[in-house]
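Narrative summary of target 7.
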Amino acid sequence: MDLRVTIVQTALHWQDAAQNRRMFSEKLSAAAPATDLIVLPEMFTTGFSMNAAELAEAPEGETLQWMQQTAQQHNAVVTGSVIVKEADNFYNRLLWVRPDGTFEKYDKRHLFRMAKEHHTYTAGKEKLLVELKGWQVCPLVCYDLRFPVWSRNKSNAYDLSIYVANWPKVRSIAWRSLLQARAIENVAYVIGVNRVGTDGNNHPYSGDSAIIHPKGHRLLDTVEQEGIHTLTLSKKELVEFREAFPAHLDADDFTI
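Modeled conformation, tokenized:
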């Protein structure tokens, strides 16, 4: 079965969760996408902030409730990452929220030390694989993109990987190149959703959100502006390519 995916590339209101939730509600209602999956950026309620002590929500706080309502309204999974406090630790936590209100979580494993993220947040330990309409999906967060071992698609365990990000414009070449590399080496679709605008630390973001085919070509390549984009991914094309090019059979076996 094909999968219809929607990505939201936008500027964010700095450290203002309520305003960001309203903004995403307005954008999604205006666009009214008929879709299976809505992908929002990393820390989509705050921007990439180290002010976790003031901004963190409870594990089932207001943003999760908003995501549940939004998923139900659009009859689609909604995913993106938020700042969460649990058991005295802060997490950059991706939430995968279904229309029926159930959800899964993934805590970002690779914390961006150049912004001292590892001094504020606790790294996750487990990768997440979720099923959607017969597709296996592996959602990850921003800096995880630089680490191919963590992203490795052992035995074609997933069909689609997702990277939600706040990836600054100064490193846009790395973002664009690595998204393409992850698709090629893992023989899987890749979605990368990044923000635009300038954050409260004066870092500009060029977006460059993209959807990459398993063969490496770009099905969607955004420009540096806000927008909501919806695209249908073909499972048939993926299966046929893997059958014709079964590179996974020659992959090195390992565990982390």
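The helical segments are 17-31, 52-55, 62-74, 117-120, 148-151, 172-186, 235-244.
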